[in-house]
Amino acid sequence: MNSRPLGDTGISVSEIGLGAWQLANPDWGIHDRAAALRIIDRSLDAGCTFFDTAPAYAAHGRGLSEELLGQALKHVRQKVVICTKFGRSPEGSTNFDTSAIRPSLEGSLRRLQTDYVDILLLHSPPRELMDGRCSSQYAELEKLKTEGKLRVYGVSLDWRVDAETVVETTRSKALEVLYNVFHQEPGGAFPAAKERGVGLIAKVPLDSGWLSGRYRRDAEFTDVRRRWSPEVLARRTALVERLAALLPPGTSMTHAALQYILAQPQVSTVIPGAKSVEQALDNFAAANARLAPETVDAIRALWQRELKDDPLPW
């Protein structure tokens, strides 16, 4: 798989990484640890070098996603890039206090079986904590970086204004941004991030499965996606159908959705999740091709026409 630079950090990452939220996570209706380990192993075989996790990607308060990655990656630790987060605990509580950063990171390091993480992100913090002019968290992150416990820090966020605030007011070098065909609003901050040498990680690239093309308005969910109303399901269905009409014959919607993100030159890596080995390998295969410029333009126009001024709830 091709690699891209993570901003100007000197770190290279595979174009498509593995989002580890679903690994053996009951919130997604998944419980099989052995299957999760197989997904990680086969991801390595496919050339994946970027793995995204968090303490809150848990099972019964255990931080199981980090544990599984620690078990599977310890033999290749120097060859992979691990991103984890701070602010949301394995037990489900939220604590962004500056004094809690070090204990949280130490817990992650134990579970990951490593003495450093490549990237540590504030995990969708309140908006006021994204302003480095009035938030002490970033000074603590700098201290941990100096100590060698992390290489790069930043924020996981959803909106352009937040990305611009972090880029302009902190020394963050990584942003994990909600960005996909249906949610392109943060793309307005990409040039500023590029100018400051900030690496961009695209999260939720398949809109929690909708951009795989598998779901329609009669879909029923028993996992975290049950939050969507019938009206939201109907709107997503209509948008999926309009997107499908824009794709060249033989192009899967999953591949098109990932390739659209990779068509944005400022993006460093894309992190779809996977419930199975087959799903993970199909995600990685998207990196083997590129969308034609006219298809990229048509997808951009779909968002501008249908979603720019009336975004979908996630």
UniProtKB/TrEMBL annotation:
The residues covered by the NADP-dependent oxidoreductase domain are 15-303
Question: By its UniProt entry, which Pfam families does this protein fall under?
Answer: Aldo_ket_red
Q: Which CDD domains match?
A: AKR_AKR11C1
Q: Which Gene3D superfamilies match?
A: NADP-dependent oxidoreductase domain (3.20.20.100)
Secretion signal: which residues?
none
In terms of InterPro entries, this protein maps to: AKR2_Oxidoreductase, NAD(P)_OxRdtase_dom_sf, NADP_OxRdtase_dom
PANTHER family (alphabetical): D-THREO-ALDOSE 1-DEHYDROGENASE (PTHR43312), NADP-DEPENDENT OXIDOREDUCTASE DOMAIN-CONTAINING PROTEIN (PTHR43312:SF1)
- What name goes with this protein? Aldo/keto reductase
Q: Which organism is it from?
A: Sorangium atrum
**What broad taxonomic lineage does this protein's source fall under?**
Bacteria, Pseudomonadati, Myxococcota, Polyangia, Polyangiales
